[in-house]
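Let us practice reading a record.
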Amino acid sequence: MPINIPKQLPAGELLKKEKIFIMDEDRATEQDIRPLNILILNLMPEKEKTELQLLRLLGNTPLQVNVTFLNTATYVSKNVSQTHLETFYTTFEHVKERKFDGMIITGAPIEHMQFEDVVYWKELEKIMEWTKTNVTSVLHICWGAQAALYHHYGIDKFELPKKCFGIFSHDITDQTVNLARGFNDVFVAPHSRHTAVSIEEIEKHPDLTLLSVSDDAGAFIVISNDEKNIMVTGHLEYDAHTLAEEYGRDVQKGLDIDVPENYFPNDDPTREPMNTWRSHTHLLFSNWLNYYVYQATPYVWD
């Protein structure tokens, strides 16, 4: 089944070229089915790239998905046109009376800041509180995962000696959990962050389960025991070239940055990187949509 997106969204043409089944709003209104309504709070600076990455994954399932893009009212991104935001995004005030089957809260390149120092932190706290009653399941990514662990469960992030940057191997702690269905015992995933969260604090917390962990990258997938919140500290949604682009930007800025680990062939930045995590990315998103959204959400919200 298709993903339903606004007619003129730039990502639409790229998704069509990739043979992702999409449907515009006009055709979707003619479908006599109950679609899933997914809200995406996109905090990433290059919003159009993140839109494409997430829509590609949401559109590769048997479920029809309606997507609403959300941006913060207390901070306006400088890396996307105001026209794009006005055309395809809305703010919390316009959706707070609605119910959503699922929500994605993305990462943001603000890890060095304390949560309370982030311009839109109070707005984000209000949104995360609202999800308790208005969203069936929330998928949090990277900084969004750290923000959720801090707000909902009191687990703070801490600075790493150097950036966790590259492709790392991960284990699954419990293969019977629905989110991990189809996962290999060991799989790889991208990370790009300067901070981490305590494995010990997560394991001790009565409301959380550490589902996936890496010897090199630390805690990876954390799920709340009520299955309301899923926190993923890395970037499974990244394209093959995303880490290369980040590395190139840091080099151009003159930053002291290591080559991403286990990413370029022979650690040579002039060689073409390969996407070695794609299959598990699709598994994660399809499992989330199926078991934690579709199977759990009410057909008619009260």
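A brief commentary: The radius of gyration is 18 Å.
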